[in-house]
Structure formats: C-alpha cells, structure tokens
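[recover] target loaded
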C-alpha cells in the first residue's frame, strides 16, 4: 500500500464485503491460529439457510413442544438459562423490551448501535419473525426498515395488511456485524426472549420469515424450501393453546431470487385466508 488512495480503496472493498465493524481492540492474525481457533463467527455472510439444529419435528404440537432448536453443544453455558429467567420474569411487552435491552448474554449487543425489539401493533392477530436487524434497522432501532423491510411491507399490503395490523420482530435483537449469519450460540441466547415475546403477544397467526426463524422456532433441520407454506401448531410456554404458524421465504432472499416470489405469493394467500377465517369466527 503506497498512498492514501490505496487505503481508501481497501476500506471501500471491506465495506462492500460486509466488513464494516471493528469488533476488537487489537487486530488478530488468523492465519497464525490453529485450525480450531479459526472458526470465527464473523467470517461468513448472512445467507438464507438454517443453522445446524439437533432434531427434526413433524408439524404437531407435541413434537414442537419437545423440540430443542439448537444442540446443547452450541449453547454457551450459563447464558441461555440467564436469558430464560429474565425473559420469563417479564409480565408485559414493555418489561420484556427492557429485559432485552439490559441483557448482556449475547455478544452482538456490544457491536450493535441499537437494540431492535419490535415494530407494529402488539394487539394485532398477525405476528412476523425475521432473522436479525441489518444496517438500517441497527441505525434506526426498528425491524424491517431497510430494503427487505420495504419488500415485506409491499408483500403485506398485497393481502391488505400494514404495520397497524401486524407485529414484527426478529430471532435476534442485535445486528450481526457485516450482516453475517447468526451463530447457533447467539440464537440460543436470544431464544428465551423470542419465545416469551410470542407468549406475550398471543398472535392468532405467526409467520416465520426465512430459514433461520423457521428452523429455530420449529426446531428442525429441514430447509425453508420444504418448510414454507405448511401450517404448524407451535406450542409456546405460557400459552394454553398452540399458535398457528407458517414459514415463508425471507424478503431479502426474494430480493436475490425473484423467481421464488410466486411461492411466496401462495404463502401470503394462505395466510390471508387463515386470517379471514379467524375474523369470521371470532
Ligand atoms: N432482515 C431481518 O431478518 N430482519 C430485519 O429486521 C431486517 C432484515
């Protein structure tokens, strides 16, 4: 590197590759680490495929209740139980929001600008769960406000729904640096809050957007292509009956793979039909 222009060029390239956060005080030469030490969670891009999970489930309440979304080996000892205690102590969404903002068991909080808790109407019948905040969401502290959020808004509008009729959150409350895929340990740390989140909102219909949300909450290794468009009865602690749950493609995946929009449209019509049935019968 000879002059400032080369350095500026290098920095621009880093940002394009998603390397846009400093996460340590000193640089680490990873080429000198032994193989086991090089498994750096910051080194992969976020994709729309599910994390490794322990078991598969059939779409029945009993199996969903029994399913554990990530293998125990991936859970940092002490962190998940701490989160579970805090999450279950929250009696309202406001308390849960405060508990999440104060929770120190997920390292992503240190690199994030804001905690991204939720948006929309907590009294809505429809709840949607995505993967994790991206750059815009991190900046504004609101889920789904970037490009994929705009597509999500258009998808919902196509079935007559806006954010006053939906409640939106994510599996993770903090942005993974560079929008990389969340690690199983990060997901496990946040999961008790997400489960409590569902129990406090009590949605009539839950939509899991993308492979990470679907595999985490359904506790399955099946990919989103197989999971989407099917109804599951999701048992959630604190709720006396299972939540009608469906998975669909993540909007950011649809931005990259527009040929999948036809299937997403079918999922949206299925969701709309279910909501109309619920409205008629209640
Ligand atoms: N992608 C998500 O999964 N969630 C957001 O909030 C934004 C992008």
């Amino acid at each position: 590197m000879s002059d400032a222009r080369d350095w500026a060029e290098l920095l621009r390239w880093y940002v394009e590759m998603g390397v846009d956060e400093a996460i340590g005080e000193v640089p680490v030469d990873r080429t000198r680490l032994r193989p086991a030490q090089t498994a750096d969670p910051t080194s992969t891009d976020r994709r729309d495929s599910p994390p490794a999970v322990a078991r598969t489930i059939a779409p029945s309440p009993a199996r969903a209740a029994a399913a554990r979304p990530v293998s125990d080996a991936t859970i940092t000892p002490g962190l998940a139980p701490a989160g579970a205690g805090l999450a279950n102590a929250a009696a309202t969404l406001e308390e849960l929001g405060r508990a999440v903002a104060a929770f120190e068991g997920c390292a992503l909080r240190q690199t994030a600008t804001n905690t991204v808790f939720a948006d929309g109407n907590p009294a809505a019948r429809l709840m949607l769960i995505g993967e994790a905040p991206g750059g815009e969401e991190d900046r504004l502290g609101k889920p789904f406000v970037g490009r994929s959020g705009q597509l999500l808004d258009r998808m919902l509008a196509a079935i007559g729904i806006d954010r006053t009729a939906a409640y939106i959150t994510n599996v993770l409350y903090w942005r993974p640096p560079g929008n990389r895929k969340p690690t199983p340990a990060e997901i496990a740390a946040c999961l008790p809050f997400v489960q409590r989140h569902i129990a406090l909102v009590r949605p009539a219909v839950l939509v899991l957007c993308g492979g990470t949300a679907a595999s985490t909450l359904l506790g399955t290794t099946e990919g989103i292509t197989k999971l989407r468009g099917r109804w599951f009865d999701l048992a959630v602690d604190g709720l006396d009956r299972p939540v009608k749950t469906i998975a669909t493609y993540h909007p950011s995946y649809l931005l990259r793979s527009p040929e999948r929009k036809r299937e997403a449209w079918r999922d949206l019509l299925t969701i709309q039909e279910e909501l109309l049935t619920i409205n008629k019968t209640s």
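[recover] notes: The chain has a mean pLDDT of 84.
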